[in-house]
Request: fold
Amino acid sequence: MATGIEVAGLALAILPLVVEAAKAYSSGVNTILNVTLNSRRDAKLQDFYDDFWWETDLLHRHLKGLVTDLPLLCPDCKAALESDETLTAWEQDQAVRDALSMYFGSQNELDSFTLIVGRILGLIDKLVQGKVNYLTTKEKMNTNMYTKLKDFVSDRKSGKTSSTFFERFRFFKEEKNRNACVKNLKTWNKRLSVLMKSQSKQRSQALAIESKPGPSFSEIRKLFNSLLTTIGEHWDCNCPSRHEAMVCLKAWPSAIRNGQPKELEFELLFPGKPISGSERRWLESTVLVSQTKGAFNDRVLLPKLCDVFVDTGDSSLRFLVEVNSKKALWRLRSQPKKLLFPATSPRMSLQESLSGQLLKTLKVKRVLALTFAYALIQCMGSTCSRRTLEKDSVFFYHLTVDTVDFERPYLSTRFDAVNQAHDAADMSIQHRNPRILELGILLLEIHKGRPLSTFRLSTEISNPSPNTDLSVARRVVETLEDWCSEPYKDAVRACLELPWVPAGKKADLDDEAVGSGFYDKVIKPLEGELEYLFRLKI
Reply:
């Protein structure tokens, strides 16, 4: 049996010929002497021609609509499928196979499509005659029929046969056979229409779900800002230098992102004080930031964090921040550690990962890209925020000696005071949000596995600036490999161009409309590709 892919390709290749032939007979352009005498071209025969033309044209429209709706294929790819008379793409392109399977959603639906179109092609088979290619009525949608119809289309395109389709197109001489032909065609066409409408309804329902307002992330950002400001108030000490800490930038689960969380427990690594000349060890810690007061009474008020920076053995430090509670910091009872970082494996910066080309698999790259997109909108969306995704400030830790945990990046911070006042915008910079531009560049660097600076032309090396980076990034995204998906390219372009932000408007993610557009244009394409390629959700 021919597959659903092969059936769809053959139907799209041969149906335009059938439609034109039926139209020609219906309008009387072609003589029908070899079917019946002109004098016998009565009203019933005219009705048959009209019906057959209408049904075949309707069928062709259905199949063209299917191609238009195929997911994850670029417009040029879909146009090529419609005109591919060699059927190469339909038979050999795995992306097309995956798209058709994804469109129907299940093997049962795809089998139904194959059956329906196969039966229709069987009717067309009966109308094609010739000494070599004529197919008997016993041959339905088997390999022999598929091959002969395919060869017929191919021979016409290559010029191997001078026979026109009109010459091989015949209607049944007996009225009962003509009526049976149209009846069967209408039946199977109607069944195809029902199947297509069913798929359309399912897609509409999916789109309706997708079109619902995306998460605003405003509550997550409020809790994150409370974390930083409160910890910062307790960070000063008499130590020779300001301590460094690491804040995990993992993406929150969808249940949290799609809700309005009133509390979140953030993961941090605090600096452990070295003992007897040993190297510093990171102390696993969590900080619960809550908008609810008085939920915990098993707690101790902590005036200064530095006092607890001692090796805790197998315990994880826990702290509590209550929003709008005069920036008080409480220590909660410790819990067992969850993270096991090998002591012999040093942390690795994002800069080192890119320069050393350690991001080897596409899955790791796509997970990391989506994680950073979420980190931006969850933690540092404001245009006045000084927190950035600088590659030498983002680090990864090892799960084992040989395995790096790329799904949990950590941002290095010293909890310096953040100026909450809006700095004067630098109007010499072409891009309206430096943080989103940084993300777009980072998505390119993660995909290519190398820094953007390596793509600069000789004339650009001596003039490093945000405008230069934007120009280089625009050039690089348009030269990405063909196998790089359009959704990923679109996400990068959205970061570079901000197409959803009206001209003259600030591109601040704290603005609900801007944040919603970022979610739709950047995050959703990255999520869709990750789920499609790896059946993975974050």
User: Anything to note?
Assistant: Residues 130 and 250 are 66 Å apart (CA to CA). The longest helix spans residues 175-211. The radius of gyration is 32 Å.
